[in-house]
Specification:
This protein is of the alpha/beta class. The chain is about 40% helix and about 20% strand. It comes from Dyadobacter arcticus.
Length: about 230
């Protein structure tokens, strides 16, 4: 045991592992994120000033029982850096870790949705081929590992390639994603968690809900790793 610890420390000296949040060296049993970053990430708790705006995102969709976001996204902030790490720099472990942390905190707070299935928001095949994976799948996988709720990344398919939602108004975002999803699997589950990386206006997630309603699903819980500030 002592030999393994010394060997691990020696390897860290030769090939230092860095925290994806602050780029400081990881020590001991730390993986992906250092202890300080894990504790200091800007969480959206029950007393957050952003909680009210989060709950009103889907006020016009009565089938959405609740919506939760784990972290607050700000430009050039630590959360943006982490999202970029697993979306654009291929660090899948960041996505799985954030999904796991989110699941753990919902369990600890007694806020875990009583859902039958987790569905990750799909990427168009063209974009998925370029990136190599769907970032929302990684979040759902990590969340599922901790909570035991099964997940699927194939129940929904994005059948039309769309322009980026960045810079568009809420109305433009809704028009951009209208009719973009299609059901690809039979869904017997009635209570669904829909999981994505960032919640902005909610247009994409709302379109997911409308598509799943046509498949017979009855109620939904929206979960995203981050909530974007406006």
């Amino acid at each position: 045991m002592i030999f393994k610890t010394l060997l691990s420390d020696f390897i860290d000296l030769l090939f230092p592992r860095c925290c994806e949040g602050c780029e400081h060296s990881l020590v001991g049993n730390e993986e992906t994120l250092c202890t300080i970053c894990r504790v200091s990430l800007p969480r959206i708790g029950h007393n957050s000033l952003n909680l009210a705006s989060l709950q009103y995102k889907f006020v016009n969709v009565p089938e959405v029982v609740s919506s939760h976001s784990f972290l607050l996204f700000t430009k050039k902030g630590k959360v943006q850096k982490l999202l970029h790490a697993f979306k654009y720099r291929g660090n899948k472990e960041v996505g799985i870790l954030l999904g796991s942390m989110f699941g753990e905190e919902l369990i600890e707070s007694g806020s875990l949705p009583p859902a039958d299935l987790i569905i990750s928001v799909p990427l168009h095949e063209k974009k998925k081929k370029i990136r190599g994976y769907n970032q929302s799948d990684l979040l759902a996988e990590g969340f599922s590992r901790v909570t035991g709720i099964p997940w699927t990344g194939t129940a929904l398919q994005r059948i039309r390639y769309t322009e980026t939602q960045t810079g568009k108004s809420k109305l433009e975002r809704r028009e951009n994603v209208k009719g973009v999803f299609e059901i690809k699997e039979k869904l017997d589950q009635k209570s669904i968690i829909i999981m994505d990386d960032v919640l902005t206006t909610g247009a994409t997630l709302e379109e997911c809900v409308q598509t799943l309603l046509m498949a017979g699903c009855k109620q939904f819980y929206i979960l995203t790793i981050a909530l974007a500030q406006h």
